[in-house]
Structures are given as C-alpha cells and as structure tokens.
UniProtKB/TrEMBL annotation:
One of its GO terms (molecular function) is rhamnulokinase activity. Residues 8-242 form the Carbohydrate kinase FGGY N-terminal domain. It comes from Phytoactinopolyspora alkaliphila. This is Rhamnulokinase. The keyword Nucleotide-binding applies.
Amino acid sequence: SETFTAAAVDLGASSGRVVLGRIGTDQLDAEVVHRFANEPKRDGMLRWDIDALLGGAVEGLATALAADRSLESVGIDSWAVDYGLLDAGGRLIGAPVHYRDSRTDGIMESVRSRLGDERIYGTTGLQFLPFNTVYQLLAEDAGRLRRAATLLMIPDLLTHALTGAVGAERTNASTTQMYDVSRGAWATELLDELDLPSQILPEIHEPASERGALLSHIKERVGDDGRIRVRAVASHDTASAVAAVPAIDENFAYISCGTWSLVGVELDRPVLSHESAAANFTNEIGVDGTVRYLRNVMGLWPLQECLREWAAEGDRVDLGELLDAAVREPALRSVIDAESSELLAPGEMVSRIRKLCARAGQQVPVTKPAITRCILDSLAIGHARTVQDAVRLSGHRAGVIHLVGGGAQNRLLAQLTADASGLPVLAGPVEATALGNLVVQARAAGALGSQADARALIAATQPVERFDPRGDIDWSPWL
Ligand code: LFR
C-alpha cells in the first residue's frame, strides 16, 4: 500500500524541530530529523529571531528530503498570538515581537474598561490574556502600523517565506481576540471600535488545505525538484496537539503541556456565558471547526526559567536528577497560583516563586528540589482545577485526562495531575504537536480519512503511559 511522506515544522518557544513522518495503513512513524534553538533577542523589545527560525526550517527540510526522497508535503505550526507585518512590497517591517515583551502592559485593562468584557468576550469568546494579538497591535508603533499592508501570524509568515502565499489559517486566527467565533470571520466591527486597521488581515483559510509549491530559491536550498507542496495544518501548535490526542471516544479532557499547559475539553460549539467569561475560558478553533474550550495554565515555563537561571549561575542541573529529588520532597508544602500573571515575564524566576510563596503564607522553598516540587504541585493543582472548571462550564464529560506534549515525559507531573484531579491520566504522545501537524497534512492529501481515523491511528501506534490517582493525600483543600 502507499505511504504518504511529510515533514512537520514545529516551532516552540525555546526550540524548533522538523519531524519526518510516514503515514500508511496502520502505520505512523515520526522521527525528529532536525532540532534548532529558538533564542529571542533583545533590542529594546524582546523579539523572535525570525531569520534563524526560517533558516532552521529550511535546513531541516533539506535534511528530511535527503533522508527520504519521497517527501512530498510540508506543514508549519507554532505558538499563537504573535505576528509579522509586511509592507506593500511584501517586506517584513521588523522582526516579530515576543508575546512576553512588556510593551502590552496595561493595555488589556484599559480596553476592557472602555469596551466591557461582555462586548469583547461575546464576540471573540477568547480568554483575556495581556498578550493577545489585539493588545499587541494597540501597542504597535503608529508609523509601523501605518506602513503595514498585511499581518501574518508566525506560521503564515513562514509559509509566505516558503511559498509566497498570503493568508490566515483559521485555528491561529482564532487566538487573536480579533476573530468572531460565532460568525467564523474577522471581528471587523470590534476592530473599528478600537481604531485598528482590519484591511491588513488576510483571507482566512482552513487547516488541511494546500498553500502552494516552494519558491525557487527555497527549492534550491532544500534540494526539492518541485515535488513538495506546503499544506496548511492546524497551525496553532495547541490545535495540532489536540488533533493528535489519542482519544477513543469524546469523553476526555486534555492537557497540552510544554512551556504552557493548555487545559480543557473539545466541543462542537463555543460557550460564551457569563460564567465562562468570569472563569476566563477560551473558545479557540480546532480542526474541522471544533472548539478548543480551555484555559492557559503557566505550564513548565517557571521550571524552564529556573533551569535557565541556574545554568547562568554555572550550575547546569540535570532535569532527570532534579525530578528524582523532587519526588522525595514532601507534597503540598509550598503551593502557588499556577495561573498568576506574575509568572509570565522572563527572568528572576526563583525569587519570584519564593515571593509568591511568602505572600501566600506558604513555606518558602530553599533548595532546587523544593522549588521544583513547589512548581509541579502547583501545576498539578492548576491542571485539576481547570479540568474541573471546563467540565462544569461546558457540561462536557471527562472520564480521563490525555496529557500530551513535552510535559508527558515528566512522570512526576503526570502522577500528581492524576492524584489532584482524581482522574486517570494517559500520558503521551510527547511529540503530539508534530503528529497532529502530520496527520492533518495526510488528510489534506487524501492519505487519511477523518479526524477520528487520525486519532485511532495515533492511539494504535504511539506509546501512552497510564497513571491512576493514588488517593493517599487529600488535595481537596486546593481545588
Ligand atoms: C502554546 C501556545 C498557547 C498560546 C501561547 C502563546 O505554545 O500556543 O496556546 O496561548 O503559546 O502563543
């Protein structure tokens, strides 16, 4: 039988990877063929090194093609929210700004008090996060914005660099807070009220659609003879990860855990109630028009930042050893709010965590294992609370939690999440985002049928580990 060969370009906040995938009947092999660092740069503002990301993607595609000459398809996903602006000549006006930059400080608050939450949430269904695209655009330099002819989200920006195609892939467009979730179109009236130019927003297209062939100078660098097609995937990484959840029926919650933990359920239609707005749940769009009803929990970011800080002090801690030590720390001794916006910015994470503990009347963690245990206990509580809220607010049932993404490798976190939630946790696949990217390409090419087929294939081929709640500790005071 035929095998479909594709490459997923998956850009994460700290690294990018190119994954070579082969999909056939009962077959799904995926292999990381290229990994590259994603190191934001500071020039007054924190910016993404977009040239390095494009270079990494192109190099990875060349490696993938060299490894398998039957490579015929490429799809790109990344984090959400961020964008590049092109001038009328199609040139990028400055490198994209990082969503963790402080330029948006205070903007969301002023927009909320001016327009009211009901107006904004009722239209967009999006959670209020200070870095949503709409607040970033309001923070833009006026001259830069005036020069802009086109706004492209990060994966669309790379697709444009590879193919010349211009467009806005729907799952990522839905994260901007400029997208009308009920109409499935840009929220142009809301933009008018905010004096933002809606004409820079390109036409929206679907995941699993074709975007074009590689431009000739890219073809040359990749070694492609014209065979490769770029296909739109669920270009928001979280949408790709959810597409790869190996669920066998619909009664599940998911946690896509990496730098962030995205925690929620999959629905047929948005929930736009007062309660939902008050709980700050988001209605982002997934493949086939599904709704990713979820909330952002801080994820492994605080731990990543601690590791970075310790490394800068000359202490390169081994994560495996650190987690082994954290297992032996007493549970629930120091708990912080894993959704606190005070954890958002980069830098000085250890002291910020200690401050949060002190302020909450918790024991202040001193050692590295104690800090790590504090982060993981707090994250598990954030996971459990958010699953509870998602179920309560949506009426959706969840008998199991699928934990996917890099965080699925963290066995302590998986166990603590099961303990805190009282639900079994199925951990894996680790490369869910890349797998979701690959299966959507396969669907676009006609090599895979429905999304249910895609999930069944992933469930049958990818390793998953089960963690049952232990019930030896009472987590209820924290939920
Ligand atoms: C995860 C993610 C989240 C989004 C955050 C910022 O990588 O895409 O879904 O809220 O990054 O874009």
